[in-house]
Amino acid sequence: MKRTLLSLFLLSTSLGVFAQDAVSYQLPPKAMADLLLAKPTPTVSIDSKAEWMLMSERNSYPSVEQLAMPEFRIAGLRINPLNFSLSRQIFISNFSLKNIKTSKTAAISGLPSPLFASLPEWNPGETKISFTNTTSAGVDLYIIDIATAKATKVNKQPLNVVLGNGITWVDNETILYRIATKSANAVPVKPLLPKGPTVQQNLGKASPSPTFQDLIKSPYDEQLFEFFGTSQLVQYKNGTETRIGQPAIYTSLSVSPDKKYLLQRTVNKPFSYLVTYRGFPSTVKITDLSGKTVKILAELPSTEGTPSGYDNTQNVARDYDWRDDEAATVTWAMPLDSGLIKKKVQFHDALYALDAPFSGTAKELFKTETRYRGTEWGDAALALVFEGLRSKQTSKVSRYNPTTGTLETLYALNQTDAYNDPGDPVLTKNKFGRQVVQTVDNGTKLLMNNTVGSSPKGDLPFLAKFDLAAKKNDIIWRSAEGTYEYVADVLDANKLVLLTRRESQKDVPNYFIKNLVLRMADRPLTSFSNPYPGLEGISKEKISYKRSDGVDLTGNLYLPKGYDRAKDGPLPTLIWAYPREFNSAADAAQIRGSKDRFTAISWASPIYWVTQGYAVLDEAEMPIVAKDGKKPNDTYVEQLVANAEAAINKLSDLGVGDRNRMAVGGHSYGAFMTANLLAHTKLFKAGIARSGAYNRTLTPFGFQNEERTYWEVPQLYYEMSPFSYADKIKTPILLIHGDADDNTGTFPINSERLFNAIKGFGGTARFVFLPYEAHSYRGRENLLHMLWEMNNWLDTYVKKAK
Question: pLDDT confidence of 207, banded at 50, 70, 90?
Answer without folding.
Answer: confident
